[in-house]
Each structure stands twice: as structure tokens, then as C-alpha cells.
Amino acid sequence: MHIEVCKSKIHKVTVTEANLQYVGSITIDEDLMDAANLIENEKVQVVNINNGERLETYVIKGDRGSGTICLNGPAARKVAVGDVVIIISYASMDFEEAKSFKPSIIFPDIETNRLI
């Protein structure tokens, strides 16, 4: 049996941009991606703490060290600049393997979106 478990989590970052005129996705500072074990094009869930919205999209690389968190395309309508979001990815794995799996969870500085 396979189950889905939390693989990666960026806990509480601030939205820096919302770009409606883009194909879609979430742009994330590459430093945050590396620290959270996320890769470009990986599917993620974005949970908006300010308004309760939840959405799924995919990751694109933002400039390293920039602190960028930008919702693009239709997802831009689900956030406002300054909203605080949690970004989560999941992995499917064998039930027994999942019992010992440890996700990559990071807690960046909420003011700058940079690693502490």
C-alpha cells in the first residue's frame, strides 16, 4: 500500500508579488527551494493563512537570495501581497517507508523570506 505524506514544507513566508499576467505557478527563491528540498516544476499546495484559500500549482525558480514568493496566473487572485502562506509538497511512498520518513521543513524569517 502507498500513502501520501508531507515531503517538504516552507512554513510561513510572505507573498512578495502576485502576477496575474503569467502562465501560472509559484515563483520561490532558489535558496528556499534548496533548503526545503523542492525542485522546479514540482507540484505544491499553497495555503493562505490570511484568507484560508488553498490551491495547487507548480514551482518555478526565483532569484537566489531574493526572498521572492510570487503567485502567478490565476493563483494571483487567491492572494494579496503581504499575505502569509505555507507551501507544502507531498510524496507517495510505501506505508512502511513512510513510518520512518522525515520531511524537509523550514521556517524562514517571515519578514524577509530568508533562511535564519
UniProtKB/TrEMBL annotation:
It catalyses: L-aspartate + H(+) = beta-alanine + CO2. Binds 1 pyruvoyl group covalently per subunit. Its cofactor is pyruvate. Pfam families: Asp_decarbox (PF02261). The active site is at S25, Y58. It comes from the Bacteria. Keywords: Autocatalytic cleavage, Cytoplasm, Decarboxylase, Lyase, Pantothenate biosynthesis, Pyruvate, Schiff base, Zymogen. InterPro entries: Asp_de-COase-like_dom_sf, Asp_decarbox. Pathway: Cofactor biosynthesis; (R)-pantothenate biosynthesis; beta-alanine from L-aspartate: step 1/1. GO terms for molecular function: aspartate 1-decarboxylase activity. The modification Pyruvic acid (Ser) is found at S25. Its EC number is 4.1.1.11. Its main location: cytoplasm. Signal peptide: none annotated. Substrate binds at T57, G73, P74, A75. GO terms for biological process: alanine biosynthetic process; pantothenate biosynthetic process. It is found in: Cytoplasm. GO terms for cellular component: cytosol. Is synthesized initially as an inactive proenzyme, which is activated by self-cleavage at a specific serine bond to produce a beta-subunit with a hydroxyl group at its C-terminus and an alpha-subunit with a pyruvoyl group at its N-terminus. Catalyzes the pyruvoyl-dependent decarboxylation of aspartate to produce beta-alanine. Heterooctamer of four alpha and four beta subunits. HAMAP family: PanD. Belongs to the PanD family. This is Aspartate 1-decarboxylase. It comes from Mariniphaga anaerophila. The gene is panD.
